[in-house]
Structure formats: structure tokens, C-alpha cells
């Protein structure tokens, strides 16, 4: 199935829907989760059923929808016939979206007088709560204190967005759109079960811009797609991810800390700052090898007949980090790319050695189905241990997952030196 998302496939997700106009977004969320391969059991409160019917959720999930604390049915395919125990047992994640102020208060105080609140007490899996309400209700100290209580218990909160509310007022209280909710669900699952939980991964993406004057620059064909896919794969694996990126226009991977840069020299500064204490650096960016010696302060006017640009070499970021880590040990795993148009393996092997990387992901960008701006890639991964693995043409997502698997395996063999600080964790949520 093309919409399948590995981190979501075969996960049992209990989706609690409470009484908010945003309940319609929960139907789309349930549908997207099912398309991604998840098994979704929906619990609706009485108030939720005033906005949307159980039949809608039943139709998109293909499973019974639970509305009644007092109704048990052994034919429902749950581990036990007592609904709240059956729903809680074996659940990989409880998502409450949208969550009203009332339901947040119930969960904050452990009240259990309906099927959703009682299931929230019975689950042992992670819980994700997405508040949705009027802006003043969200800002009320009762609500903020309740949300603080949930956070204190390790419950993840999806920050509501600023915007127009159903009332016509503008405030913070809107349920974020489905891609953000999906991203947070991936983040919650990755953090709990991924092979990179508590690891810090830095990824670079996009082609750098080397300024000629304030309106012109030299760049390359990189779209940033492969780097963003690597960042998403690292998030799915549970890592705290920093994505250092040039402007790409791609949606930000939910949960990643983003650092925006333009030139090779800005990217170098950001990488050197972030790599300290990092578990892995994956240099997927297409860094310019040359930049104008001088960048004009004002726009260069076309009245001159011709223009000759003098270029100078940029710093090689990967090589700089590769050398430094011989002394510092950071990052523990270093991955580079090699974009080639000829002699793929020979050139990639030279880069692997020269840049002191653990892996080089080599691709022949002149091949059909590989390279810039498209959704697939054909790569060979060379390891410092002499391994050479050629992967068939596949999506950039699949390539990214293959890279992250190798990073996780390599990290198992390199002694651990740093722990993720609380600050890193909180900055992504
Ligand atoms: N790279 C880098 N800094 C540069 C140039 C490249 O960090 N100034 C990194 C890229 O992010 C990539 C790897 O080095 O991970 C290889 O980049 P590539 O463009 O394939 O090769 P170059 O080292 O630039 O060598 P050449 O242009 O001679 O192929």
C-alpha cells in the first residue's frame, strides 16, 4: 500500500474523541492512520457524538466504535470482553484528539466515569493529548494547571494552534491539522519503541546558497527531499533530531529542531555547534564547493556588458568534522553522501577514507530514478568496515530508513559517551 508508514504499520492505536467541533478532523486522522497500516479503535464520548456519528469512524476504521462504558461484547476482537480493559490491553498508544477542557480535567484528576476516561486510567502505553477549545478556556489557569499535571506524568501534549475558532474569535485553541497530529503520533511511538531512543542525531539537508549579491546566488539542484526523509526516519526511530537546512519549501518533520541556514559557511558553523555531544551526523546536504570571493552589498546592475565571477573553495564540512572527531569522539557515527556522475564506487570509497566517515551513501545522480528532486533514489552504502551494499531503486523514505538502521546498528558497537539532556527533549515538543 503506497500510504503505508512503517512506524505506524500494525500498531494498535486507541483514538479517543471528545465533544469539540474539531471532531471532524479526528475522522480524517483515523482514516490516515488506517491507510498507514495502523489498527485503530475509536472511543467517542457522548458529547463527541453530537458533532459526528460513530458510523463515520466505523466506516473509516473498519472496526466497532466504542461509546458505552456499560456495554461489553466478546465479538469485538479485543483481548478481553470488558471494553475498557480490552481496549487498554495491548494498545501501543492512546491518542485523545480533540481533547476538551472537561476531559483534560477528568484525566488530570483520575476521574473515570465514562469509557474514555476509564480507559485512560487502564492503559500502560504512552498517551498523547491534543487540546482543542476556545482560546480563553485554553489560557484559563485551571486548564493550564491540568495540562501541566498531564505533562508531569509524561503525557505528550500537542500544542493547539493560533487561529480562527468556531466562535469567530481568534485565539490559541485550534486542533492542529492532521499531518501535525500524525507527526506527533510518529514521534510518540518512536520515542517509546525506536532503536534511537535517547540518541541525538544531526541531519543536514538542501543545497547551500552562495550569495553573488543581495538578490542572486549560486546553488545546485538539491531539493532536500533525501535529507528530510533521513530526519523523519531518525524521528521515527526515537531520536532527538536537529535538522540543519537551507530553504527547501518542504514541510518540517514534526518533532525536529530546525536550524535554518543558507551558505556553506553558515552550515559549517551550525554543524560544529550541534555536533558536540551528538550521536550521529548525517550530511545529506549538497554543500557548494565554491562561493564568490566577494558578495556585492548592492544588486549588480546589468549595464556592464559581462560579469566574471571569481570563486573560491568553501570549507568541506564533512571532512572538517571527520578530522575533529579523531580528537573529540563526536559524533560517534558519521555518514556522508556521494553524488557522482561517473566512477561511483571508486569516488565514494575515496570520500569515505578522506572524510573519516563510517558510511558513505553513494548515488549516481545521472541515473534514471536517482538523484535530485524526485521521490526515489538508487544508492550503494559503503561502510568503513569494507561493507558494500547496493540497494535497488526505492523511495527516499526507504533509503532513509536503511541508513538509520545502519546508524543504529553502528551505535551499538561504539561506546556511549553522552546522554540526551532534558533541554534537548523539551525543545522538540
Ligand atoms: N560536503 C561537505 N562540504 C562540502 C562539500 C561536500 O560537507 N563543501 C559533504 C556532502 O554533504 C556529502 C559529501 O561531502 O555528504 C560528499 O559530497 P559530494 O558533493 O559528493 O563530494 P565533494 O566532497 O564535494 O567532492 P567532488 O565535488 O569532488 O565530488
Structure description:
- The chain is of the alpha/beta class and 429 residues long.
- The chain has 2 domains: 12-189, Flavin prenyltransferase-like (Rossmann fold); 195-413, CoaB-like (Rossmann fold, 3-Layer(aba) Sandwich).
- It has 15 helices and 22 strands.
- The chain has helices at 23-35, 48-51, 54-61, 83-88, 101-109, 115-122, 135-139, 141-152, 178-193, 225-236, 264-274, 317-328, 344-354, 396-413, 422-427, and strands at 12-17, 39-44, 65-66, 93-99, 127-131, 156-157, 161-164, 170-174, 200-205, 210-213, 216-218, 240-245, 257-260, 280-283, 290-292, 311-313, 333-340, 359-364, 376-377, 379-383, 388-390, 394-395.
- Strands 13-12-9-14-17-18-20-21 form an 8-stranded mixed β-sheet, sandwiched between helices.
- β1, α1 (23-35) and β2 (39-44) form a beta-alpha-beta unit.
- The model is unreliable at 425-429 (pLDDT under 50).
- The structure holds cytidine-5'-triphosphate.
- Residues 264, 283, 285, 287, 289, 314, 316-318, 336-339, 351 line the site of cytidine-5'-triphosphate (CTP).
